[in-house]
């Protein structure tokens, strides 16, 4: 206890050890240290990445069904079979919306992805689910993502 202030002095943590510098004379070139490789992705970071990819893919897919986005924008993210199925469903939705049903025109209005959950199946496979809220209904979407050579790719897309 300090006599003047009445406050106990806490044990100060030791100061960090500063590297010792040494002087090198001569004309030799300094050694170049290789840049440290970034740490490998942790599962938590990978799961967040999968959720972000799933969220944007589902949002875009629902916008394709609404007719506000061209399906070709998803060609890098979706498997060719999934892309063809999405294009087919979008064509059917446009056909129904142009019909005589009064509620058909309100399909896929103002979609927003409410929540996304991802589950790791293996090192290179995730399965995710999403809840999409539209003007007149709530939809469930399920997708399967597989790691490709360059990026994650959706191989199964089911929109309820």
Report a brief summary of the structure.
The protein is α+β, with helices and mostly antiparallel strands and 160 residues long. Helix content is 26%, strand content 24%.
Task: Quickly list its features.
alpha+beta, 4-stranded antiparallel sheet, 160 residues, 2 helices
Notes on the structure:
This protein is an alpha+beta fold. The chain has two helices and four strands; from the N terminus they run H-H-E-E-E-E. The chain has a four-stranded antiparallel beta sheet. A hairpin with a 2-residue loop joins strand 1 and strand 2. Helix 1 runs parallel beside helix 2.
Give the SSE layout.
Blueprint: H1 43-66, H2 80-97, E1 112-122, E2 125-133, E3 138-147, E4 152-159
Antiparallel strand pairs: 1-2, 2-3, 3-4
Helix pairs in contact: 1-2
Bulk shape: elongated
Mean pLDDT: 80
The neighbouring-strand order within the major sheet is 1-2-3-4
- Helix and strand pattern: HHEEEE
Q: Please outline the major beta sheet.
A: 4 strands, antiparallel
- % residues in beta strands: 15-25%
Whole-angstrom Rg: 28 Å
Alpha plus pi helix count: 2
**Model regions low in confidence, pLDDT < 50 over at least 5 residues:** none
Class by SSE composition? alpha+beta
Number of DSSP E strands? 4
Proportion of residues in helical segments: 25-40%
Q: How far is the first residue's CA from the last residue's CA?
A: 70 Å
